[in-house]
Amino acid sequence: MCLVASFLLFFRIIAEFIEISHGETSRNVCRYVRAFKSVVHSLVVTCIYLVLWIRQRRFYETPALEYLSTPFVRSMSFFVVIIMAVTNICNIGLYLITRAYTNLTRGCVVEWSSISKLTPGLVLFVSTLTFQLVLLGLLIYPLFHHLKACSGPSNEIPYIKRVTVAAMVAVITDITCGAVTVFALKNTYGSMRQVVYDIDMLILLIAICMSFENWRHRLLP
């Protein structure tokens, strides 16, 4: 999943260069490149959060932690992946159906929008922030209970710290990038906001990789 997300993010960054090079002169570039990037963005986010979802599911399937798989935990785990899928589809729809793009001297900009221009970005960052917090809770919950049941030092403490720090970095990055795109880059070049999205996804991907024990091999195999 991380490898797929890396390739998709690489193709999206290539699309940034195409938009920056031709966004001032071609309306078709603005239309199709923005549509491509919107779809790729949702796919990258989906891959990254599926990594977290699969990992917490496997924790509850281990014999030592099966007793923590309560009906509430199973329901949260089931519904969060459904909500992730629905939200990502809605995000694609918000960017593709509710607006159109055109070319200006400052690059690709929104030509018209049937809803507030800020709505898609707000939905995107609120949903990703929610996924992070819920999935972090589902991941940390069994580890903390396992620590309470164990006597003496445990090897899970460094792992809990690593996962928590990585998740907090991702949350802070989401909030910061969301605030920058909504408030600081509201009336500037449209491509600048797209670059901020790319930076957000790149940091999120790195943070997810670093939450694993063999993060050096995952980042630089």
Distance between the termini: 15 Å
Q: Show unreliable segments.
A: none
Give the proportion of residues in helices: over 70%
Taken together, the total number of domains comes to: 1
Which whole number gives the mean pLDDT? 82
* Helix count from the secondary structure assignment: 7
Q: Main sheet: which strands, in order across?
A: 1-2
Q: What coarse outline follows from CA principal-axis ratios?
A: elongated
Number of strands: 2
- Let me know the largest β-sheet: 2 strands, antiparallel
SSE ordering: HHHEEHHHH
Structural class: mainly alpha
Rg over C-alpha atoms, rounded to the nearest angstrom: 19 Å
Strand content: 5-15%
